[in-house]
Amino acid sequence: MKPVRKAVFPVGGLGTRFLPATKALPKEMLPVVDKPLIEYAVEEARAAGIEEFIFVTGRGKSAIEDHFDNHYELEQTLGERGKEDQLALLNASKLEPGQVAYVRQMSPLGLGHAVWCARNLINDEPFAVLLADDLIKADKPTLVEMVEAYEEHGGNVVSLMEVPDDHTSRYGIVDPGAMNGPFVEINGLVEKPDPADAPSNLAIVGRYILQPSIMHHLGKGKTGAGNEIQLTDSMLEMIGEAPFTGLRLSGTRFDCGTKSGFLEASVAYGLARDDLGPDLRERLLAVLETSH
Ligand code: G1P
Asked: Which range marks the domain in which residue 165 is found?
């Protein structure tokens, strides 16, 4: 079985929900406390042993490339001022030379199309996909657990969580088979079904380990929900080719693609910080007392 060494980060989305903040700033660069969303995803991938980071970008996204690069002026100034802590933060956010590649999704044709744009960099290896909008706070990083599940089951692995019945039309929903602890055999998948048509309330979270054969299915360019080329539809075509396993999420997922989810994440991550938590808690309580 080939190890999972590569990860795809689809970051071409327009981020219209966060306008005007995202007019000149990629939504993936919005910070939760003091770190951009995309860096959380990269850290998770690194923890899982990923060696090649492939960003599927678009126009106006160059801040992401700059973020993972050297910043000579800032490094020099911080060095001269003896700001070792801040230098360490800068260094931690860099990717190694040659570890990172950027490919453009030239038209916004959907998540499946974004992943397909990385096909020549993926070649014939299994790979992870991480959606930075789905920020997951967990003791053990989700992709680490998924790689372990992959080593046990092989094939394809997706992360799952239960959602309220009336939210199924926001997610890819699985048709579950046998369940064994956190593992769910996947018999079917459907993108954003109406609650009446949903096979369950188990939704796909934005973490995937996929076999490279998905590129063949994506390459057909078939459109699905929302008239977009959906990753879910090609995953469905792969059922039967190889094991397809769902792994129930053990952490908390914040939907940073929505304003309320993003604010919730900011509060949760802020409260968890030793240097911010106690003070923030007091301030939040005061805000709650005075707001209506
Ligand atoms: C995408 C996927 C969907 C998945 C979701 C997780 O949808 O298409 O299957 O459940 O991410 O966040 P999007 O949020 O891009 O509409």
From this structure: 6-257
Would the pTM count as exceeding 0.90? yes
Three state DSSP letters for 178-240: EEECCEEEEEEEEECCCHHHCCCCEEEEEEEEECCCHHHHHCCCCCCHHHCCCHHHHHHHHEC
What's the CATH number where 195 sits? 3.90.550.10
Among candidates 245, 47, 235, which has minimal Cα distance to 159?
245
Q: Rounded to whole angstroms, how far apart are CA atoms 75 and 11?
A: 26
* Per-residue model confidence as pLDDT tens digits over 154-180: 999 999 999 999 999 999 999 999 999
Cα(1) to centroid(ligand 1), Å: 28
Q: What residues does ligand 1 touch, defined as CB less than 6 Å away?
A: 111, 131, 134, 171-172, 191, 203-206, 230-232, 257
The single-letter code of the amino acid at 201 is N
**In the predicted model, what is the mean pLDDT of residues 79-92?**
93
